[in-house]
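Quick one:
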Amino acid sequence: MIAALGVVNLDQLEWNSLVSPVLGVFLGLMILLFIFRIVLTWYPQVDLNTMPWKLIALPTEPLLIPLRKLVPPLGGVDITPIIWVGIFSLLRELLLGQQGLLTMNGY
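Output:
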């Protein structure tokens, strides 16, 4: 928005100062939300359609639905949130870790 007003030229900004923090917060938040989903599976009486649980279910459910079609429950346990924690953790490490792609390329 600031660039649209002509105040700041985005070419002058270092991409690392924009991409890395936003991506780090997003991936960290998604990992945290999926960990909450894992804990909530231990309490089947929790209704995910009521507040505050809906705040956890809304961003995670669209990712869980397609994966549930591919990965059936093991012994009656839904492991799809665990898979997503692994995926987001791997992405965070590959992109933002000490030797991550964005770190090594200077972004």
